[in-house]
Design a protein that fits this description.
The protein has about 475 residues and is mainly alpha-helical. About 40% of the residues lie in helices and about 5% in strands. The protein is built from 17 helices and 14 strands. Strands 1-2 form a two-stranded antiparallel sheet. A two-stranded antiparallel sheet has the order 3-7. A hairpin with a 6-residue loop joins strand 10 and strand 11.
Length: about 475
């Protein structure tokens, strides 16, 4: 990796204050190389916060420099939603427009940034794990669990997007020129993810929604079990039921509140941002707009007509919250920047759309309810299990309150995939769902043909960034098709 020389660093405590009940991800402004920085429990916790910082990423729109950034999850919609049949870029210009047309090259800037961002999380987690014994004994297990949860989160993203990747679980020294460039099998990556998440789930509680928690580890592990090459449907179902039976989470009655009443009862794990703060804001909300900024870098996640048709037919109350159609195009409305007014045309997006504070929702309860159904269906085609049908019905009833309770006696795999599409649209789940349900090639080939894009099976994995291959001096191999 490019940042090997910093792997032995310690994050300086340039921290913002934290609410006693919730965690606003602090952004360290500098690093130091002295191992002696970590001397107290507070120092170790600040280092744990630094891992979240890498996940949050830098809002490059607030920076005066055009140097390299680690955008964290802020580019994730390009690598996921744009590679599904849900959304596309507004223009055909620039590297951001390559994702929806399946033209991604190993030199793609956004893919390169995402890959580096995930490894930044992993390296920071590994670094902090080497300092855990400095923390108060009563906090050591919790800090370890948080670091391992975040490492697992990053590796799960990497293995799904890039396939076999380097597996690094210790601090990398400058003299080590190989471990960060040797790709290992997906099976080994998943084994490490499972081990990390099992430990996290056994240690953490549900105090936080914007830090690692037991439920977050359980939900992520359930998704891992549903995704890994050797599926473990029974274990995934048990994990979903543990979250459901805990009674600590519930669906929001109003679908809009999921996104605008942040850290609500439905949120299991969210990445927090703060409006107007250059170090704590995000720009993806602004990038989803295009009507008044045509020709700029904005205009991502433009809604495809086939998704609009599904939302109109099956979305119920979710449709109005999810998208809006203007005379020129349809736009995402789940993450409108503060101060937006879409009741007028042209719409307005507040005074500082590029400094938005909308949280990134990584895991929420509706996803768990639908995974509960998925696990019960397993390798089959449908389920009529009453408790599982109840999970599906809760999601459906919220979307169609005028007809609730909706009479549902069974749920097929196709119905579940459709329900996940309209419930979780624009939340970066569709691409992974298509792969997990085994229909990605079929759906994306048809979608590409309809739009005159060039899609092949090798496009299901992204290319390993050229920068990493060049730095490896030939050790790091490329994915087929690139």
């Amino acid at each position: 990796m490019r940042y090997i020389k910093y792997l032995a660093f310690s994050l300086a405590a340039i921290m913002t204050s934290c609410d006693a009940d919730e965690f606003l991800n602090p952004l360290p402004d500098t690093v130091i190389v002295e191992d002696t920085f970590f001397q107290t429990d507070a120092d170790v916790e600040s280092g744990i916060f630094g891992i979240y910082d890498a996940l949050q990423g830098v809002n490059s729109n607030t920076e005066s420099s055009d140097t390299d950034f680690n955008r964290g999850v802020q580019f994730e919609h390009l690598l996921t939603e744009h590679r599904s049949d849900n959304t596309r870029n507004q223009t055909l210009e620039g590297s951001k427009a390559d994702f929806h047309r399946y033209l991604i090259q190993p030199t793609n800037t956004e893919s390169e940034d995402y890959y580096a961002s995930m490894y930044s999380i992993i390296f920071r987690a590994n670094n902090m794990l080497s300092f855990i014994d400095i923390a108060d004994e009563s906090n050591q297990a919790r800090y370890t669990a948080e670091a391992k949860f975040l490492r697992a989160y990053a590796y799960f993203n990497l293995v799904r997007l890039y396939g076999d990747v380097p597996l690094v679980t210790d601090v990398v020294l400058a003299s080590d020129t190989e471990s960060t460039f040797i790709r290992v099998s997906e099976e080994l990556i998943y084994a490490q993810i499972v081990e990390d998440l099992q430990e996290a789930a056994g240690v953490l509680d549900n105090t936080f929604k914007s830090r690692a928690s037991r439920a977050a580890a359980q939900a992520l592990l359930a998704k891992v079990y549903l995704t890994q090459p050797t599926r473990n449907y029974a274990a995934a179902q048990q994990l979903c039921e543990a979250i459901i039976n805990s009674g600590e989470f519930s669906l929001q009655e109003n679908f809009s509140d999921v996104f605008y009443d942040e850290l609500n009862s439905e949120i299991i794990f969210a990445i927090e941002y703060a409006f107007g703060n250059p170090n704590e804001s995000q720009s993806f909300s602004a990038e989803f707009t295009s009507t008044v900024r045509a020709g700029s870098d904005d205009g991502q996640n433009i809604v495809e007509n086939n998704l609009i048709a599904d939302l109109q037919a099956f979305g119920g109350t979710r449709s109005e919250v999810s998208f809006i159609t203007f005379p020129t195009r349809s736009e995402v409305t789940k993450f409108l920047p503060e101060g937006s007014d879409i009741s007028v045309f042209p719409p307005t997006y507040g005074d500082n759309a590029r400094n938005a504070g909308n949280d990134y929702i990584a895991l929420r309860y509706a996803d768990v309810l639908l995974m509960h159904v998925e696990a019960a269906i397993g390798a089959g085609t449908s389920t009529s299990n009453a408790s599982v049908i109840s999970s599906f019905q809760q999601v459906k009833d919220r979307a169609f309150p005028d007809t609730a309770p909706n009479t549902i006696s069974s749920v097929s795999k196709d119905e579940l995939l459709l329900e996940r599409r309209v419930e979780l649209a624009f939340e970066n789940q569709r691409f992974f769902d298509l792969i997990r349900f085994g229909v990605a090639e079929e759906v994306l080939s048809a979608y590409a043909a309809d739009n005159e894009y060039s899609f092949t099976a090798t496009d299901l994995l992204l290319p390993i960034p050229s920068r990493e291959i060049n730095l490896s001096r030939g050790l790091l191999t490329q994915n087929p098709g690139y």
